[in-house]
Amino acid sequence: PVRDRPRRISIFGATGSIGTSTVAVLADRPGEFEVEAVTAFGNAGNLARVAKEVGAKVAVIADRNSFETLKEALEGTGIEAAAGDKGIEEAASRPVDVVVAGIVGAAGLSPTLAAIRAGSNIALANKECLVCAGELFVAEARQAGVRILPMDSEHNAIFQALGDNRMEDVDKIILTASGGPFREWTKQAMAAAEPAEALKHPNWSMGPKITIDSATLMNKGLELIEAHHLFDVGNDRLDVLVHPQSIIHGIVAFKDGTMIATMSAPDMRMPIGHCLSWPKRGGDVGLGLDLAKVAKLTFTKPDVDRFPALRVAREALEAGGWATNALNAANEIAVAAYLAGNIGFLEIARLVEDTIADVAAAGFDRTPETIKDALALDKEGRRIATGLIARHTARQPS
Ligand code: NAD
Ligand code: MG
Prior knowledge:
CATH topology of the domain at 7-150: Rossmann fold
Catalytic activity: 2-C-methyl-D-erythritol 4-phosphate + NADP(+) = 1-deoxy-D-xylulose 5-phosphate + NADPH + H(+)
Bound molecules: nicotinamide-adenine-dinucleotide, magnesium ion
Shape: globular
EC number: 1.1.1.267
CATH class of the domain at 7-150: Alpha Beta
Number of strands: 11
Keywords: Isomerase, Isoprene biosynthesis, Magnesium, Manganese, Metal-binding, NADP, Oxidoreductase
Number of helices: 17
CATH superfamily of the domain at 7-150: NAD(P)-binding Rossmann-like Domain
Family: Belongs to the DXR family.
CATH architecture of the domain at 7-150: 3-Layer(aba) Sandwich
Order of helices and strands: EHEHEHEHEHEHEHEHHHHEEEHHHHHH
InterPro entries: DXP_reductoisomerase, DXP_reductoisomerase_C, DXP_reductoisomerase_N, DXPR_C, DXPR_C_sf, NAD(P)-bd_dom_sf
């Protein structure tokens, strides 16, 4: 058989959870991929190790203070070292077959946009791009003629279930949620939940930000917004089901009554491998699932009273791109404040809701049309959320 040329890829956020799983996929499939760039925020030693492991051409560290350490660690390897946000954008501008967008948060906006403009397909884990500026990303991708391949497990499952079907035949798109560590907790217990408890996800091992998002179900809220942009469906055709086994990741319900669901073990190597091979499927990597061992799959409706983030996200989706941008900014600030011990668990969703209201009251309720607008609005949302936390903390009895 004729061997395909290796796929050229770049990995943004190469030292994180998505990045590490991506490197594991490459290790499972030797010779299939060539790596142009790997990037990370601040751990130069880790980044250098990953760069050597995958044989990258260039390694870029966002934190300029770590540049010398990176350069030293790469000495004699022939791997180029670079630093700073500019360095990351330059690496994103190098065209490849697929860019893995695995940076966490709004920090991924500029590099992902640069990659789109360079004509690379995007394997999108960084859902915050779509929550902050989905209209813009979808339009830019269309204009550049590139695909946004959903790497988030639910969206990847739906992408696979949709196949060649027409969206007009689709009744509903259903995202499953594990329910997180607090699925069965009372509201009272959740109010006192410690970060260490929220960081214990039952089924997935992921970075800290998305793990907290999974505990509040804000992650599912972000994913509703993500699905809206990826599949061009409105809030009314998007559903969430709590499915604690995390075996079915997404379901497409067709108007004719048929439902197509995608199943796999909860392991990010599956959606990552799918995006990297698309439109083909990857080879045998031994990730098959023993359904007899799983035995039982259950589904329930999410409890919006205990998990208000879902309602807040749906309202933001209805309100428009400015509101989802504010939602993301406030959520990033709120999660950081919760992890720092400055606010309680239930305050996260409340803070997000209040920030969106204040962003509107301040007259910023216009959907961003450029990346500059999106970043300016993001900054405003962060400023307002930070102010709300400062006032909240000042009110606390000492
Ligand atoms: P993580 O915290 O484990 O890793 C984040 C990566 O981004 C690291 O390499 C870090 O160095 C880099 N980074 C952080 N801030 C940066 C900045 N300012 N500039 C440049 N680089 C920066 O996060 P993760 O869990 O891998 O998640 C990454 C993204 O993928 C998130 O958007 C998350 O929602 C999404 N996602 C993750 C998973 C998962 O299984 N971890 C699943 C679905 C979607
Ligand atoms: Mg997901």
